[in-house]
Amino acid sequence: MRAVVFDLDGTLADTSGDMMAAANACFRAEGLGDLLGPEDAATALRGGRAMLREGFSKLGMAPDEDEISRLYLHLLAAYAEDLSTHTHFFPGAMEAVERLKLDGFAVAVCTNKPEALARQLLRDLGVLEAFGALIGADTLPVRKPDPEPLREAARRAGGDPARCCLVGDTVTDRETARAAGVPSILVEFGPAAALMAALEPEVLLAHFDDLPGVVAGLNL
């Protein structure tokens, strides 16, 4: 079976608001106040450590990796307590997922968010059961851009890893698809939209309404 595998943060959903809230909670606990704002949405979608580094950089500080790792654990705890208040799906995202399933594709999520948090978020949003599989950053010994999480997501959803594509929004997604030898589709509507064309994916996606037709044209 052919498969379409989706990244989560910045691809299916804009999770930046809740992620920045968790990072700011860490900064407040350190007595630094809220360091991240709406202008940092693209950074948020690169993950917790990226947000921590960005916040400290605004203060001219460069903590070592041990300190970042310590704060990252606090960030994950804060995020787990409130991860869906501001998060929303991009227009047409779940409609496209359902259309792909009707068209005979397996669908899965492959994210670098820890699996438990990704599973909790999709459950809170009421769509966990819509996907045949979910692979997170810690599901396997390796994470994107290693190709194995993408391949395993396709397999667990009942698809053929050689007949899949990855829908994403970062250079990590582009490199993951390239390493797996399959097409990448990068979205042009997330916080990092302006950077997508330079990554030269097989397809740039302007709206999820177009995704079923785009995937059909790939001849997976």
From TrEMBL:
GO biological process: DNA repair
EC number: 3.1.3.18
Pathway: Organic acid metabolism; glycolate biosynthesis; glycolate from 2-phosphoglycolate: step 1/1
GO molecular function, one term: phosphoglycolate phosphatase activity
Any one GO cellular component localisation term in the record: cytosol
Enzyme superclass (EC): hydrolase
Catalytic activity of the protein: 2-phosphoglycolate + H2O = glycolate + phosphate
Protein name as catalogued: phosphoglycolate phosphatase
Source species taxonomy: Bacteria, Pseudomonadati, Pseudomonadota, Alphaproteobacteria, Rhodobacterales
